[in-house]
Structure formats: structure tokens, C-alpha cells
Amino acid sequence: MVKHIVMWRLKENAHGYERAENAKLFREKLEGLAGRIPGLLSIEAGIDFSCSPASYDVVLYSVFSDREALDAYQVHPEHEAVKAFIVEAAAERAVVDYEC
After folding, report:
1. Number of domains the chain is built from
2. Is-contact 36 78, C-beta < 8 A?
């Protein structure tokens, strides 16, 4: 099993929305991938409420059957569509992938 964790800090404005609205759209779009990509076993997105200087705005926690499934997810058309939205709205990104 592979866990894929990503955190984003968002731009103040993107896609005609403020950061808080884009955070909600991130969560909605990411969680909408559930059941749509082979090998994606679970996916959860959360929005930070602490708003501390060290915080990121949105976190993604997802589980894949194996590394090949994670690789396939990265180029899957459904993920590519979400990624296009994310790239425009994100100011920073951090990621960790690990096997368990």
C-alpha cells in the first residue's frame, strides 16, 4: 500500500474566488475522484482551521494499492482535470509518498 499526502498554501485570489472558497473547491474536486481511478483505495481532503503561520490551507490524504497505481493516478485524465484547477490556485505545495 502507498500513502500520498499533499499540502497546499493557496493564493489569496484565483479563479475569481478568495482563498477560503478555493479551499472548499479543492476539497470537493479532490474527494470527487473517489471511485473514479483504479487503484485509488481512499481519498480525503481537509481544510485547515488554525490559520497559523506554519499552516497549509488544504491537505490531501490518499491511499493507493501500490506504486504503479499512484503513477497511473498522476496521469489519469480525471486527476489531470483537478490538477489544472489546483496549479492555478496554489502558491506552495509539499508532498510525501511512502509505502506501508
Report:
1. 1
2. yes
From CA 64, how far away is CA 74, in angstroms rounded?
A: 12
Average pLDDT of the chain to the nearest whole number: 97
Domain that holds residue 89: 2-99
φ and ψ of 97, to 5 deg? -120, 135
Three cell numbers written together for 1: 500500500
If you write DSSP's letter for every residue of 79-100 in order, what string do you get?
HHHHHHHHHHHEEEEEEEEEE-
Other CB atoms within 10 A of residue 2 CB: 20
For 44-98, what is each residue's pLDDT tens digit?
999 999 999 999 999 999 999 999 999 999 999 999 999 999 999 999 999 999 9
pTM higher than 0.90? yes
